[in-house]
Design goal:
Helix content is about 20%, strand content about 0%. The chain has 3 helices and no strands. The longest helix is centred in the last third of the chain and has 10 residues. GO terms for molecular function: cellulase activity. This is cellulase.
Length: about 100
């Protein structure tokens, strides 16, 4: 299973994220739990979001109300992002144009 949303065929479908779980044409109140408790996959895919990942027993509960594992976060992805940025260290940026 991939914990990077949108990568591969098996990734979290019920990410704990308001923008992903509520249809764009809705205007819910802060107390509206309709989409939080829905068993349907998110109507919007948060492509590229990295969720919390597996539990200590190496399992993942793909439920929208499981914020511990399903919340996209920067703290759990900081190391991963740092490693990926190292792959880009040889890029030549001298061809970028100035905005002045």
């Amino acid at each position: 299973m991939s914990y990077l949303v949108g990568y591969g065929s098996a990734y979290p479908k019920k990410v704990h994220h308001r923008g992903a779980s509520i249809p764009a044409n809705q205007n819910p109140s802060c107390s509206d739990r309709t989409w939080l408790v829905s068993r349907d996959p998110n109507p919007n895919i948060a492509t590229g979001a990295l969720v919390g990942g597996p539990s200590l027993s190496d399992s993942y509960n793909d439920a929208r109300d499981n914020a511990l594992q399903g919340e996209p976060t920067t703290t759990s992805s900081a190391l991963f992002t740092g490693l990926l940025s190292g792959l880009d260290s040889n890029t030549n940026y001298t061809t970028l144009t100035s905005f002045t």
